Amino acid sequence: MTDAVSPPLISVVIPVYDEAENLPDLVARVGAALSRTSKPFELICIDDGSRDDSAHILAQLAARTPWLQPRFLIRNYGQTAALQAGFDIARGQYIVTLDGDLQNDPDDIPELIEKMENSPEIDMISGWRKARQDATLSRKLPSMIANRLISKVTGVKLHDYGCALKVYRREIIERIQLYGELHRFIPILAAEAGARIVEVPVRHHARTRGTSKYGIDRTFRVALDLLLIKFLMRYLHRPLHAFGGIGLWLLTPGALSLAWLGGLKLMGESIGGRPLLLVGVMLCLMGVQLIAIGVLGEILIRVYHEPKGRALYRVRAAPRPRPLQPGPETANP
Fold first, then answer.
1. Averaged pLDDT for residues 277-296
2. How many other CB atoms are there within 10 angstroms of residue 62's CB atom?
3. Of 20, 121, 250, 332, which residue is the least packed, with the fewest Cβ within 10 Å?
């Protein structure tokens, strides 16, 4: 445990939305699991505008639990904003996230923290629900397809992007900023920030209280967010290559079509009623517009980076030196 003066070593961040039935058990189990480590910790529960008694229960629990730090958002902003609110106030060197429905097992947290402490080369540990207890085939199949698609598109190879149980080093969290619904892609954002990630199987339990907050519309949101992530990974610092490239693909056939029609016009043929004229004009207009958007994007990138001197790169700490192996240069004569 920790007090208000000494900083905790571990910060557990849990977004909460309509989990009144789970909160007493959740707080008790997280406290029991981390108390066994004898390391100072804090539990940050972010009430994301719950419609039930979650906020009142959190306030009551915090009154008698010094390491519980609840925060209450004025409305439902979504899981991404709730996580970012927790990250903003977390003080620990290790930051843990998990869901508030008790499907993640708090008893896994000490093992993950120990693994990270013993492995300085690891910056993030992502949980893998290898034996999911809540998923029917109708949920497992789309989840499996989504995980493989995300891994293929982004190059970050994980089996389970949807597992909320993750552990981060503080410096990784400080390098990323969440918005929209990017909580599903935190491993990708962390990898872009230089994190070295490992995946570890964790326990998983079926939901026994409350109702799931996920619906079929989540699949479509994931697909759209994946497009955004791919754009950010590849074209964030060179938007002209994205928009300008598509613009050139449209402008080139449009310009060739108009040039050909112009040649026919010079030869005396009528081109006013040809559909190709309209197609050529539309392609040229769309191509020019996309190129202009790319140029504006390049200007905005420079406006973002140059005034405050933001660097386009990050520097990693030097690795610990290894003993040199005897060789021709180091061997004694």
1. 93
2. 16
3. 332
Q: Which of 229, 185, 163, 199 is nearest to 80 (CA)?
A: 185
Those residues with Cβ within 8 angstroms of residue 126's Cβ, 6 or more apart along the chain or in another chain? 158, 160, 161, 163, 166, 187, 197, 198, 199, 200
CA–CA gap between residue 41 and residue 12 (Å, rounded): 8
Distance CA 183, CA 162 (A): 9
For every residue of 277-291, DSSP letters joined together read HHHHHHHHHHHHHHH
Please give the Cα distance from 172 to 166 (Å, whole number): 12
Quote the distance between the C-alpha of residue 324 and its chain's center.
39
Rounded mean pLDDT, 269-279: 87
Kindly state the tokens that stand for 239: 């938007």
pTM: 0.75
Taking a C-beta distance cutoff of 8 angstroms, is the pair 119, 112 a contact?
Answer: no
Give the residue from 211, 29, 10 showing the smallest Cα distance to 104.
29
Residue 203 sits at the vertex; the CA angle it makes with 8 and 37, to the nearest 5 degrees, is 30
Are 22 and 53 within 8 A, CB to CB? no
The CA distance from 12 to 109, in Å, is 9
